[in-house]
Amino acid sequence: MAALRAGLLGVGSMGRHHARILRDVEGVELVAIADPGGDPFRVAGGIPLLPDVAELIDARIDIAVVAIPTRFHAEAALALAEAGVHTLVEKPIADDSATGYQLSETFRARGLVGAVGHVERFNPALQQLRVRLAAGDAGAVYQIATRRQSTFPGRIGDVGVAKDLGTHDVDLTAWVAQSVYTSISAQTAFKSGRAFEDMVSMTGRLESGVITNHLINWLSPMKERVTVVTGERGTFIADTATGDLTFYANGTELLEWESVSAFRGVSEGDTTRFAFAKREPLRAELEAFRDAVLGEKSELSTMEEAVHALEVVESALHSAAQGGSLVTIERARR
User: What Gene3D superfamilies does the record tag this protein with (predicted)?
Assistant: First the structure.
């Protein structure tokens, strides 16, 4: 079978990594690159740098990756859909969920694979976590909490931390738990003088009853990417920065120290740090995109799922604007 002809729109901070990996994915040939802003990281190599999505389409591509600023996602993705090109759009899917819903419906109506780059689904720690939760290793899940903190990224100028990073945490939580959000409340902060928030704290509930908490900011001098899942048998901690997964089991031995046992709901048990292969998440995501185009099942974030993640974040921002009131999630029309 001939290799899928791939086009890449955008070779900035994220696009350069797509270019590197697309050149190396079996069954895919990177044949065209476009970026009206040029090639700051010099990743085009021997491939001509095209000025826009129209010329990218003219290169007779089968699949495309859109890695340009969020405000340009919709126009580019719609043009690719009209041309019959299977497309993976970097997150968030669009500026707003209504536009994202339009994209989702367009790709669905045309029978095209439309995916969104919620790459955390392919983090090895989270993939292991999902498998173990599905196997019942934690028993009934009570709570999923995430922390995503880092310094301010100068390259992000068109959205705040909630849409840029919060969509990751919302998507990975819904995917790990296999349940959608039904409500959310939030608080935001604006500390860097920008029009968009640089800190958000969100508390929600999934349809399954699981409580969720997300602490996200661009105001920390260190990088933290942690997902904590607490269940009836113990707690999993996935460090997605390192790809590590650890399980802290509830103990079965009675505590003899009366002053400690008096305030503990459970006792400490064994701690297990799991060993598993750690593939590069973006490579696994792009291989999954290839597989989906070839008709195989994958764990890609569909555009419909990405719209839900954006709806949750928009509802959180609405909650914050209303002083932290609880907001019921209204899912996109079917």
Answer: Dihydrodipicolinate Reductase, domain 2, NAD(P)-binding Rossmann-like Domain
